[in-house]
Structure formats: structure tokens, C-alpha cells
Amino acid sequence: MVEFAVAPGSREVLNMLAENGALADMISAGARILESGCGPCIGLGFSPGDGVVSLRTFNRNFPGRSGTRGDR
């Protein structure tokens, strides 16, 4: 199972994703759409279990930032 969450950086980005069809594609693929804001940047949400691989593309992406020490 793959968890997929999208946290647009702004309302403008969210609107762009909706207008070009990418938002619908991501939702169809099972994505959870999070509020625009700094949640991921400050380490909130989606803490993976030990040994679980987590791919994150925000600017504060370093070991342990996701909230668990055993994530990869």
C-alpha cells in the first residue's frame, strides 16, 4: 500500500492543479489533498511506521523530520 498526500504550497497552486486537471488525476490515484499551508514544513502529519519508506518533497526533508526515528 502506498499513501499519497498532496499539500499545495498555496491556494494559487491548488487552483492551478485543479485547472490543468492534475488535481483530479491525483485524487483518482488515491491522493489525500491537505490544506495549503506549512503542515509538512513543520513536520505535521503522515508519520510513517518503522522501516517504512517515506518520500517527501518539501524544503525541510531530513532524517527523523517525519516524526519517527525508524522511517526511511
UniProtKB/TrEMBL annotation:
Record-annotated Aconitase/3-isopropylmalate dehydratase large subunit alpha/beta/alpha domain positions: 2-70
Coiled-coil features, chain-numbered ranges: none
GO terms assigned for molecular function: 4 iron, 4 sulfur cluster binding; aconitate hydratase activity; metal ion binding
GO terms under biological process: tricarboxylic acid cycle
Keyword vocabulary terms for this entry: Iron, Iron-sulfur, Metal-binding
Keyword Protease: no
Any one GO CC term of the record: cytosol
Gene3D superfamilies reported for this sequence: Aconitase, domain 3 (3.30.499.10)
Annotated Pfam families: Aconitase
Matches recorded under PANTHER family: ACONITATE HYDRATASE B, ACONITATE HYDRATASE, MITOCHONDRIAL
Protein name: Aconitase/3-isopropylmalate dehydratase large subunit alpha/beta/alpha domain-containing protein
Native organism: marine sediment metagenome
Biological classification of the source: unclassified sequences, metagenomes, ecological metagenomes
